[in-house]
Structures are given as C-alpha cells and as structure tokens.
Write a structure and sequence with these properties.
single chain; about 200 residues; mainly alpha; two-stranded antiparallel sheet; two-stranded parallel sheet; 4 strands; globular
Length: about 200
Amino acid sequence: MLKRAFDVLASAAGLIVLAPLLLAIAAAIKLGSPGPVFYHGVRVGKGGAPIRVRKFRSMVANAAQRGPGITAAGDPRITRVGRLLRRTKLDELPQLLNVLEGTMSIVGPRPEDPRYVALYTPDQRRALDVRPGITSPASVRFRNEEQALDRPDWETHYVQHVMPEKLAIDLEYVARASLLTDLGILARTFIALFR
C-alpha cells in the first residue's frame, strides 16, 4: 500500500515537473525521423500478464519488424535522437504513465520481452511476483547493456549469461523489497545516470 502511494505521487509529480522536457523530446523525435513519438512494446508484467510499456521512440518506425527484440550497440535502427535518449535513459520517461495506471512501479524488476520470459525457470518466474519497474538493481548494474551485447552471438550471450545474472539480482531485490530499499535504488540510479 505504501509502495503504491509512493508510486502514484512520484509518477504524477514527475510528469508535472518534467512536462516541458517531455514536450521538447517529443518535438525532437518528430523532427528527427518519420513515425510516432511513442513506442509501445509488449512486455510481461506482474503475474505474467502482458503489458504495453511506453517509451519515447528511439528507433526507426517499425523497427520491431526489421530486427531483434533486444538492441545491441551500433544497431542501425537507432535514430540520431534515439542514441541520445538511450544513453541518458530519457526514452524511459513515458513509463511514468505506466506507473500512474498501475501496470508498473518506480522500482522493480525491468519488464522483459515475452519470448525471453518463456525461457525462465520456475525459480526465475518469482521476479513476476511484483510489478515491473522503471529502474531496478539489475538495470543499475547493467547500465550499459547494449555495449555488453556488442558481439556476434549477442542473443546467446544474453540468454545464457546476462539474463540469468539480471534475474538473480532482481530476485534478491524481490526477497527484501521495501520503500527504504527502493529509495536507495533510486539514488543509485541517479548517480549512475549522471556519472
């Protein structure tokens, strides 16, 4: 109950305070490449339910039909504006709307693509016991995930190494989650963003 109240207040305040920045980003996306401002990706939420995650579009229109669901460094589908948005994580800001509507939380395991969730072990599926988050301990640890996947066998590397390590970190979070823990993760996220 306390976590949900924090989520609602923080996301509403964030949307109000960041409104001028959100509008500027939307304008830059429209001017930078044809297509919609937002990308709506299907991910897996709490309890394994599909959710539509909002992001600012950082790739060419119809990028999902033109390549894989995970983006490695140097992906030619990323637009010029998109590179900046991804590097600064500003593409994630529309997820404040997901938080406000209750499909996501400010802090929680990052929502994953259904095709990778299908590979989870029963133990790993415990990460789906909570709402997914905009940030998580694993997303702080894997801040530069695209660079880690800059290799020919990127998907195999992701499935066999990166995904299990991220899930182990997030499962530890799920086991001891509290508002104080969330505030600490938020602080670490801001430090990582401005480092």
